[in-house]
Amino acid sequence: MKKDQNIQFFSPEEIKIFQEQRLAEALAYLQAHSAFYQKMFKEHHIDIAKIKKIEDLQQIPVTTKKDLQLNNDSFICVSKDDVIDYVTTSGTLGDPVTFVLTSEDLDRLAYNDYLSFTTAGLLKKDIMQLMTTLDRRFMAGLAYFMGARELGMGVARVGNGIPELQWDTIQRIHPTCGMVVPSFLIKLIDFAEKNGIDYNASSMKKCVCIGEALRTPDFSLNTLGRRIHEKWNSLQLFSTYASTEMQSSFTECEQFHGGHLQPDLIIVEFLDDDNKPVKKGEPGEVTITTLGVKGMPLLRFKTGDLCYYHDEPCACGRKTIRLSPVLGRKGQMIKFKGTTLYPPALFDILDNIPKIKNYIIEVYTNDIGTDEILVRVGSDDKSVAFSKEIKDMFRSKVRVAPTINFESTEYVLKKQMPPMSRKAIKFIDLR
User: Fold this and answer.
1) Exposure string over 368-407, b if 16+ CB within 10 A, otherwise e
2) Residue 36 above 80 pLDDT?
């Protein structure tokens, strides 16, 4: 794989030329090795030699999650002898998909996370506390470790959960940065306060955060981000957005103004419902074409995630496209009493109510065929007055109020972490 970490600082025109050269290589590889794309090119009479510009990609149909689920093996471009690692997607929007990685793909993954960490300002002298799992067929955990190794950082592989072990590691090894799901930082703060630990005086000064948004579309901290920052104000929080399918990530720099594209690893488009590019200032579905992937490359894959994009140069010096926080997943759109909602907007409301210890949102179809929202709330206060308070908060923020059911925090926790899950689930779609 060709690496050029300086390409992100080139002019937009130079970046585009570079990506178009890589695109030609990617198309030739798919033509030679991918049964799925060979069939697509043949059925749609696509001559890849005529796809010279990024704009020419619009001549090619998009690839969807359903395509991956129905034709999983047809996307694999290598023999089993060349496969080093098997992983699966999380299955948030359907059945998990198996991905295979070659030795070259693992090198590419390490390089991606090296770029991710350097974008966030991490250095060789840093020590990382890895608070995510490396097992359960999870691509990202291994990628974080390999990226840290590529940068030369020391790593403490603690895994997820167990606040006591996390704090023992911080006090024993003195890591300077962490890789973590941000809501877990709330649990670390709570444990520290109950056990007399001064977290603001700890060695941990930066965390790269996955899986949950920290900012609103205007890049101000959302409720979760504020709750962490108001307590642990010596800790800088960097968002990163990634998926198994793209095998790369978009990470914030120290300007905190969107996740930066790594242009030597991925091409990104932002498409509307008709698969046309959206205008600037409009949200679009993040659609990716991988560059340099050998095992299971993808072409114009629609992720289901809706984002705004920003193409003006960043104050950090990079000239790459930047992504806003994810507004929501297209497949998780809720039409409730005439209002269109996405789960992140509901999470932000619930995260802002201190008496709520945990929650899970369930969406189902009622007997007249429309969407209904049930929020199962874990709280010590189960009063009618508190239920009204929660509903009033929803009405003030999104104009409509869901049904509230109070449950034990233990019950909600079990619903959030089913046996096969790699991460906490806060949204269940029963439609």
Assistant:
1) eeebbbebbbbbeeeeeebbeebbeebeeebeebbebebb
2) yes
